[in-house]
Amino acid sequence: MKLLKLFKKIGKKFIGCICIIILISFVLNYIRSLIPLFIGKVFESVGQESNSTSTLPSFINNLFLGKDKSSQIFLVFICIIVTCAVRELVNIVLDLLVGYNRESIGFELQNQFYDRVQQLPYSYLNRVETGDLIQRATNDINRVRQFYGNSFP
Fold this sequence. Notes:
By secondary structure, the protein is mainly alpha-helical. 83% of the residues lie in helices and 0% in strands.
């Protein structure tokens, strides 16, 4: 129960960043789905069927209207390269945000832990070995960091 309260408390501080990460994840998945659609457009352009319906979004499909087959294939090639570049840029931004969020949450937990240790009675600190406290702080906080870091794509 204490762990759940701690996650709620820390989650409130970072809810904006978490929402941005989730939004960027949806955008990244949408961008990833465009590549197979572009490849399908190549087969559609090369094939004999000129009246087939494309599954590309209409704003992208309008780029191909009125072009001959070679121009369409070249345009699909350019679109695939641009889509891959945008996908990688969005992926980098997502990785940076997840890393920032993970380290910020770990830093916050670490500060709260050390504040709590400093408030403990002197008799408890004499009884418990220092190595155990340090090991517990390091391992538990690193596990939480890994949990947050691995929870997001």
